[in-house]
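Reminder to self: tokens first, then the designed residues, so the page reads top to bottom the way the pipeline ran.
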């Protein structure tokens, strides 16, 4: 998940869905968010009780691994994105398509309503990702807070990444500059937005999964399909985000590749798709064999 969050076109939520830990992630984040809400109301006993319900043996190693991946792989992936943008876009396209394939099996049955919702969401996301703003000059306090609240949703939402959401809001360059320049005040406001956004969105998403799981999964599948616009390998691919505050970056332009540019990205996409689907089927087969033995 940490490696995915570094890439502008991939979400950590997509990887969580692919690995079968998505429901546990949303549930634990929602429980932790409610603990923060209790603490904000000065209900310390309620906050402690909710924190006890968090599966720390799951969420602790998960976030340690996420942070370790960001620290260890950010420079490597950044270099690959810069030097091989089309190839990396092909590779991650295969991963997202595999996630879509795996997720389709989680909707039972596929009703006309679910299919229609998935198509509407996919078309809407595809269209919205064509809209981008230039960097915001001298962001207000609300802009810093809002950027954090919106970007954090990508952590538990399969599809579009937080980096690209910041780019669409015109806040990617200011946030990156604040990190590089250690602007503690701006980063503190951004962090508060992260916490509030995660608390609110995790509760909404958790409720939807509990009450209308199939329709919610269909919408998430549509989100992943529509977000493929960001990963389109030509002409920009995923190597498009710049830290130049004066530059307006177009990361969603569409074009057809030249004949000699197709082979390697397509091969990497097929390879990534095949590996993920193969491992998923192997895990399912082992689970079905282990079930009767364990019983």
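Designed residues (295 positions):
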């Amino acid at each position: 998940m940490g490696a995915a969050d570094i890439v502008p076109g991939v979400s950590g939520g997509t990887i969580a869905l692919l690995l079968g830990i998505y429901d546990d992630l949303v549930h634990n984040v929602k429980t932790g968010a409610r603990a923060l809400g209790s603490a904000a109301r000065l209900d310390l006993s309620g906050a402690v009780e909710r924190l006890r319900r968090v599966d720390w043996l799951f969420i602790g190693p998960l976030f340690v691994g996420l942070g370790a991946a960001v620290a260890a792989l950010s420079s490597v992936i950044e270099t690959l994105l810069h030097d091989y943008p089309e190839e990396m876009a092909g590779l991650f396209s295969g991963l997202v398509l595999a996630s879509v394939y795996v997720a389709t099996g989680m909707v039972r049955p596929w009703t006309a309503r679910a299919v229609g919702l998935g198509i509407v969401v996919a078309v809407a996301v595809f269209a919205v990702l064509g809209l981008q703003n230039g960097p915001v000059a001298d962001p207000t306090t609300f802009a810093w807070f809002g950027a954090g609240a919106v970007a954090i949703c990508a952590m538990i939402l399969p599809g579009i990444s937080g980096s690209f959401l910041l780019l669409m809001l015109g806040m990617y360059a200011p946030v990156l500059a604040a990190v590089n320049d250690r602007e503690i005040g701006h980063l503190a406001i951004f962090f508060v937005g992260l916490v509030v956004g995660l608390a609110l969105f995790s509760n909404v998403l958790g409720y939807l999964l509990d009450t209308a799981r199939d329709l919610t999964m269909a919408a998430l599948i549509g989100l992943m399909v529509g977000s493929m616009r960001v990963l389109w390998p030509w002409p920009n691919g995923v190597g498009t985000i710049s830290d130049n505050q004066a530059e307006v970056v177009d990361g969603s332009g569409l074009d057809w590749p030249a004949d000699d540019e197709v082979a390697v990205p397509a091969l990497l996409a097929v390879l990534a798709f095949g590996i993920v689907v193969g491992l998923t089927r192997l895990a399912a087969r082992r689970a079905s064999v282990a079930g009767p033995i364990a019983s």
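The two ends are 33 Å apart (CA to CA).
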